[in-house]
Amino acid sequence: MATIHRRVIAEKIQALMHKGSKDVVTFSWAEFYDVAERERIKETFKENLASDLRKLSMLINYGQSIVLVAKDFRFAPLKA
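Given the sequence above, the corresponding structure tokens read:
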């Protein structure tokens, strides 16, 4: 199976967020593997994808249960 370039994956995530009018999304790891169209994800890939997403003003965090992607702006400020 041919793998798609991480820049394409970053743009795909951006399009999913735009289509859903979301500022932040969470993927289960299974969903993330589907979006990335990969069977294995190495640390280098995750770091490079984070870099590609930063170029689109987006942040990514890899948790134990989920992968979180958010737009890099203050969309939900706390009210004091």
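The mean pLDDT is 93. Try to locate this feature in the token string yourself.
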